[in-house]
């Protein structure tokens, strides 16, 4: 069971809502994924409109709603978006994104920390999207982040966990859940992150742009569960030295001397 800010989640797969061909398809994919945490870009929804096309397809009774500040270019913009989201939706949960460069969409570490400090003071439960920087992860935890969300690769690239070494360090020293976000392009990538010990992964593009998003969502669900199961079972250590899986004593070849006579 995953717990963030004293809230339990039975699913360790978070799903984004962008890039789907339709809101109906998005809803079916989310249902197939089993995800209980769904993130929505504030700039894409009208929280004041109960008939908003995306919001009407999200069952708020079963799905935890996580607004994000996608599009914010600095801490001030992110804080302003967060306040608007809380006023309109009533939730104080927030995925914090501060991405000043639209070409790379990489998070600004300084303004991410600055916004986290301010939003925690205002009572928000902040899950900051961040570079895979172990030192920054510690600083964000110290500032009161409820979880940290290091990127596996830049948003939308489907390149997998390119930051594996840094993410492993973040996981080793984490005092809050670690959610690997961005770059997860295949179920095998999600399984890798979970086998490393991540507490959850967030996937959007890989599901939304798949030929069959609903089926892909089911594949990610299975991969996340398998990766977590493997992590908890305890993986064997890699080795450059061969090691027989069967005992060397009493091998059949030791009893074949008569064939040489």
From TrEMBL:
Active site: 95
Gene3D superfamilies in the record: Aldolase class I (3.20.20.70)
Keyword Thylakoid in record: no
Annotated EC: 2.8.1.10
UniProt: 1-deoxy-D-xylulose 5-phosphate binding residues: 156, 182-183, 204-205
Origin superkingdom: Bacteria
Pathway: Cofactor biosynthesis; thiamine diphosphate biosynthesis
Keywords associated with the record: Cytoplasm, Schiff base, Thiamine biosynthesis, Transferase
GO molecular function, one term: thiazole synthase activity
Major localization class: cytoplasm
SUPFAM superfamilies membership: ThiG-like
Thiazole synthase ThiG domain span: 4-247
InterPro entries reported for this sequence: Aldolase_TIM (IPR013785), Thiazole_synthase_ThiG (IPR033983), ThiG (IPR008867)
Region feature (Disordered): 234-261
Location relative to the cell: Cytoplasm
GO biological process entries: thiamine diphosphate biosynthetic process
Reactions this protein catalyses: [ThiS sulfur-carrier protein]-C-terminal-Gly-aminoethanethioate + 2-iminoacetate + 1-deoxy-D-xylulose 5-phosphate = [ThiS sulfur-carrier protein]-C-terminal Gly-Gly + 2-[(2R,5Z)-2-carboxy-4-methylthiazol-5(2H)-ylidene]ethyl phosphate + 2 H2O + H(+)
Self-association and partners: Homotetramer. Forms heterodimers with either ThiH or ThiS.
PANTHER family with a match to the protein in the record: THIAZOLE SYNTHASE
Family indicated by similarity: Belongs to the ThiG family.
Task performed by this protein: Catalyzes the rearrangement of 1-deoxy-D-xylulose 5-phosphate (DXP) to produce the thiazole phosphate moiety of thiamine. Sulfur is provided by the thiocarboxylate moiety of the carrier protein ThiS. In vitro, sulfur can be provided by H(2)S.
Official protein name in the record: Thiazole synthase
Annotated organism of origin: Desulfolithobacter dissulfuricans
């Amino acid at each position: 069971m995953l717990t963030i800010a004293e809230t339990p989640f039975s699913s360790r797969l978070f799903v984004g809502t962008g890039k789907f061909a339709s809101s109906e398809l998005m809803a079916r994919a989310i249902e197939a994924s089993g995800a209980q945490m769904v993130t929505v870009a504030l700039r894409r929804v009208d929280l004041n409109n109960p008939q908003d096309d995306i919001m009407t397809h999200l069952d708020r009774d079963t799905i935890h709603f996580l607004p994000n500040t996608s599009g914010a270019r600095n801490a001030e913009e992110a804080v302003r978006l967060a306040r608007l989201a809380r006023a309109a939706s009533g939730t104080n949960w927030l995925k914090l994104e501060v991405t000043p460069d639209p070409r790379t969409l990489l998070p600004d570490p300084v303004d991410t920390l600055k916004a986290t400090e301010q939003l925690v003071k205002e009572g928000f439960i902040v899950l900051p999207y961040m570079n895979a920087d172990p030192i920054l992860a510690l600083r964000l935890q110290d500032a009161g982040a409820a979880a940290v969300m290091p990127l596996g690769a830049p948003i939308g690239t489907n390149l997998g966990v390119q930051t594996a070494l840094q993410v492993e360090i973040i996981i080793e020293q984490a005092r809050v859940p670690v959610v690997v976000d961005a770059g997860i392009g295949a179920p095998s990538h999600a399984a890798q992150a979970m086998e490393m010990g991540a507490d959850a992964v967030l996937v959007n593009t890989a599901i939304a742009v798949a030929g069959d998003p609903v089926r892909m969502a089911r594949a990610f669900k299975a991969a996340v569960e398998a990766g977590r199961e493997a992590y908890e079972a305890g993986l064997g250590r890699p080795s450059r030295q061969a090691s027989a899986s069967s005992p060397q004593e009493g091998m059949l070849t030791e009893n074949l001397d008569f064939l040489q006579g």
